[in-house]
Amino acid sequence: MRLDIIKRSFILTGIFISFFFIVSSIAPAGTIDLFTSEKGDIKISGGTAHIPVMKDAAKQIMEHNRDIRISIAGGGSGVGIKQVGEGLVDIGNSGRKPTDDEIQKYGLKLFQWAIDGVGVIVNPQNPVKALSKTQLSEIFAGKTTVWKALGGPDKLINVYTRDNSSGTREVFWEKALDKGEITDKANVVVSNGAMKTAVANDPYGIGYVSVGHMDNSTAPVILDGAEPTIDNVKNGSYKIARGLFSNTKGEPKGLVKKFIDFLFSPEGQQIAAKNGFIPVK
Amino acid sequence: MKERFIEIFIKSFAWLSGLLLLSAAFVIIGFLLVKGVPTLSLSLIFGDTSPADALLLRRQVLTGLFPAMAGTCLLVLLSVGLATPVGLAAGIYLAEYSRGNLKSFFSLFYDILAGVPSIVIGLFGFSLAISLHHYVKEIYPCLLISALALAFLVLPYLIRTTQFAMESIPSETRLTAPALGATKLQNIAYVLFPRSLPGIASGVILAIGRCAEDTAVIMLTGVVAAAGIPGSLLSAYEALPFYIYYISSQYRDAYELQTGYGAAVILLIICACLFLAAFYLKNQLMDRMLYRQ
Amino acid sequence: MTENKSNEIKIKTVNLSFYYNRLHVLKDISVEFPERSISAIVGPSGQGKSTFLMIFNRLWETIPDARMEGEAFIRLKNKWVNIYDRSISLPELRRSAGMVFQTPNPLPMSIFKNISFPLKLSGVIEKQAVDEKVEFALKQAFLWEEVKDRLSDDARSLSGGQQQRLCIARALTLDPEILLLDEPTSFLDAGSGQIIEDLLLSLKESCTILLISHYMDQIRRIADRVMELSGDTSNNS
Amino acid sequence: MKRECFAETGFLGAAVLSASLTALILIFMLFLGFPLFRGGCFFTLLTTPWNPDKGLFGIYPMLAGTLSIVFLSLCWAFPLSLGASALISVIAPTGFAKFCKKTVQMLTGIPTVIYGFVGVFLLVPFIREMFASGSGMSILSASLMLSMVISPTMILIFTDTFESIPASYSAAADALGASPVQKLLYVILPYSRQGIFAGLILSVGRAMGDTLIALMLAGNAVAVPGSILDSARTLTAHIALVIAADFDSIEFKTIFAAGLVLYVFTTSLILLVRIIGGMGMKNR
Lengths: 281, 293, 237, 284
Fold this sequence. Notes:
heterotetramer; B: mainly alpha; MetI-like fold; D: mainly alpha; two-stranded antiparallel sheet
């Protein structure tokens, strides 16, 4: 009786799994020439600013060739670099340039396929729409604690920040705060998407996000006279800019190389542009 | 007079706390249903793929909940499949073979394992995967690792339910087969185990529920935001509870938020069904069904 | 009382004592039972009558904290064996010494499966042999006529008396040499009890029967010998 | 006989395998967190703040966050559960009591992530508007939701204890003309003291082990919280947030310290429950 049940559950699991293998091995014709008759998995993780582009690219590829599976995880730039370095994923994205140490240690190959900015956002209801760098530093250091001091409502400022693995945080910290302090009372969110959501839901919140992720659910803050828009990043008047990197361990091969090539292809670059980034080509 | 005051105070406190709890529960579930039920539709699950194509895996579902539901399903099957044989065997050992100090030693260990926070089990699974990765390049945090970690999580529950179900068999039944010349193993296989099946089955179903709802373990061991239906045991995968968590903090637009509510309602329905099934099994004398010739 | 023609000793105990934890229930009992007879065991409750029966199929060993001293012998296949010897196979001993309990305890399966259960345990699987055995045992237990058309029914759908006869039939499938009966009629009505008594009388030709009973009239009707277990002595009359 | 032996070995094997997992998890934590133990660094970690920019990797704020959220959630959940169990076992009419108990049993089956999800969209905005201070992601929100998560189990443990009181005690109280409330006060509660305590401790363990509620609702700030409206981070949420992929960085090692602290805490709680249980046996 007992054995029967165990056996049955094993067989069931087995059938279920082999079902997937069998079904997934019948090859169809793809329409993106690059990926025709390819099959296999690509694992991507890291930078969360990249996720919309990665998702759209993956969707296009997988729609045309369902033998290719692309899994996308977040985690932040630091995680992406480490995971690709340790060989846990095929592509590790980062919203900052990997350090020389990292490149050397892991033998990373860097591919910068777009340029992005990092901008400060507040809730659209908030009347404070422009700040100076000094004001910004004081807010993030926890020295300015009420909006009233900046011409806003008499409410406490809720600062949102990212965890240390974030490339967006790194760039923001370096270029906007000049490596100044970020208060430890700040709420910590896990991705660019989560930052946007948090500030969109909090009338008194302030945070920073990839320019590509900005939309009308949050309001951009003009920093020292420059508005964080993609045009201003392009023409250089908004200074807090960075590259979006996809990194591989060593020279990419096979399917992974094709994926990287796809990012640089007209289709791929168009996806980047559509998601609010500046294509490199 | 004082007695009477105390009496009234305690009575109203009890009613207050009972009603507070009930109304909080109804607000939570009601809120979810009001927001979530209108979103339920085939396109929520299958996106723009036709359901038949999706179910037969002819086309991948790229915008619906189907990959997350399939991921959760596979995960549950695998982890319960892994944990059940071991859990039942260990439970049988505890109930029928071990005595005295050995028994309390084992049960202490299982109690501790049951108390270990799920995130710690997830961390264990994650470090296991990374350590193994140094030797076997194919192993990453993946479906298999998640299933293993979840199996660790539910193992103590399975062991304990099996043990209690076997131990609660009355001694007349326990002696019947030995009096007819059954060996210990025969007694277990033909009488004791079948008799405790309803109890064990409800334990297994509750374990399924735990695997289906857990988020902390899988967060560290291989679940990702987008993966499609896993191609093998060593692929990353999606799961419903993680999807709900992910959407709650980083939905991109109103539509994605809607899918989050939809996913929450679906998960709630799945868990409620599992729970009712376990409840039904516990209360029904299932042996009638099982023993008919 | 009627004595049987051949009256060889079948079962004997030597200086038998029994303890539950520190409770001394059986004290230094040495007793003999002749074969092909019904021996009744009587005495006030709590004096270890049931325990005494379980000595002979060693079923007490499943009870925690129980302990036995002394020896017990049974003449199995005409050879005296010390049933507490290490070489004894427990399942085999229990197959030669069938036991029936106070409450009928059919297993939750069909009538047929109940009767054939001991055969399954001892590895008899040949369909025809099983069928024959089941029929024979049911006939022996006066139950065949009542159940032959509903062998696949749940055994628990039978009446109390039928269930008890089923249990006796189940014990008989393995041709036991000894039958241990623990108040088999106490939960039955007079009519059902009567049938069981007749059944026991007919079985005594093939088995040695030890019977615990509270009913003096029942003992008078069917028992060949009576053994009394009381406070601190056992009287064998 | 061979089969018997084989089977017993198999069952024993399964039992040993399962038990060894308990030890294996501890060994893993110790082994991977081992470099921290050298030079007493481990204990420094428990008392220093977290600020990787300045090279500080202490988990003291998370420890404080965990303790404050657990404590506060018990402050809500314990009286609530005690009251609700009294209602179910003693005070409410049978029909309503049954309904309550069924509902509570159903509540234990609701996934934690669903509580978290509803918390994000219902409780957090409510708290933010209500107190007009902070983002609403706070110890208060997390502890309120967490108390909803742990209450059902606590109630079930309490009602089981209440209902396990010997019928003779209950009958004696009834015969003396005690009202239900008097019976509760003078017979049931004193008799159930140990059961209540055990239920409380088990709930501490559950509250401490929960990841999602705190991760989703507490805001995850790395400061030591100063008020219940402050954002805070628990040890469990810390593990979920800092997870990375290398064994080298100090951040990564410190999450094993966090894991170890959680393991040790929950294990001591289990041991405590056992000791209480053992005492209960002797007293009865």
